[in-house]
Every structure is written in structure tokens, then in C-alpha cells.
């Protein structure tokens, strides 16, 4: 994922937390805010210190970044999205994390439906 698609600064995270909407399941919490002035979505990832060691936290962040890359064409632009991983993600595989993320994004209408029914 390119750097321009990432939220890095604390001020940007705080803006999404204050102005955005949130929703969650057992594994992930998602905050999002619509940004009309940008043409793409940006993602910020947060995995707390209580969730395993550094190797585990980095693995979870890699899985989430990869899931966003695969869902890139289906995500409705322009939004800033912040993902907070919860404790159960520590033991999840990539497929489980992607399924959980997809479910949350679809539930909150941030994901386009591609079914050809």
C-alpha cells in the first residue's frame, strides 16, 4: 500500500476519532469519516501493545494492509478509515481477518456489492 493511502499523523487519527462514525465486531473496530477534498481512501491501522508481541502486531497490520489492497476496487471513495484490532485477531489467519473486515465494511456501506445476481 502506497504511503499516500496511509494515515500516519496523530492529528489525522484524532480527527477521524472525533468527527467520524464507528462500528465494530469482536475482532475489529472501524472509524471512518468522509473526505470530499481527496480522490482516494486512506487507512490508519492501530494494534495495541496488549495484543501479543511486536511480531504478532506487525503480522496483523500486514494482513490488514493486504486485505485493503485486495478490496481497493470495491471500497467507496473518498474516506479516511481507521482500524483498531482487538484481542481475538491475535489468533486469526489472513482469510479470517479479511472476512471480518469485509463484513464490517459491507455492513456500513463502505464496500460496493459486486454480486451479479
Automatic annotation (TrEMBL):
Reactions it catalyzes = Endonucleolytic cleavage of RNA, removing 5'-extranucleotides from tRNA precursor
Q: Which GO terms describe its biological process?
A: tRNA 5'-leader removal
Cross-referenced PROSITE patterns, in alphabetical order? Answer: RIBONUCLEASE_P
Q: Report one GO cellular component.
A: ribonuclease P complex
Task: Supply the alphabetized keyword list.
Answer: Endonuclease, Hydrolase, Nuclease, RNA-binding, tRNA processing
Q: Which Pfam families match?
A: Ribonuclease_P
Q: What is its EC number?
A: 3.1.26.5
**Carries keyword Nuclease?**
yes
Q: Does the keyword Hydrolase apply?
A: yes
Which InterPro entries does its entry note?
Ribosomal_Su5_D2-typ_SF, Ribsml_uS5_D2-typ_fold_subgr, RNase_P, RNase_P_CS
List GO molecular-function terms, semicolon-separated. Answer: 3'-tRNA processing endoribonuclease activity; ribonuclease P activity; tRNA binding
Q: Which Gene3D superfamilies does this one have?
A: 3.30.230.10
Question: What is the role of the protein in this entry?
Answer: RNaseP catalyzes the removal of the 5'-leader sequence from pre-tRNA to produce the mature 5'-terminus. It can also cleave other RNA substrates such as 4.5S RNA. The protein component plays an auxiliary but essential role in vivo by binding to the 5'-leader sequence and broadening the substrate specificity of the ribozyme.
Q: What family, per the record?
A: Belongs to the RnpA family.
Known partners and oligomeric status: Consists of a catalytic RNA component (M1 or rnpB) and a protein subunit.
What HAMAP family is this protein classified in?
A: RNase_P
Output the NCBIfam families linked to this UniProt entry. Answer: rnpA
**The protein, known as:** Ribonuclease P protein component
Organism, by scientific name, is Oceanobacillus chungangensis
Query: Its encoding gene is what?
Result: rnpA
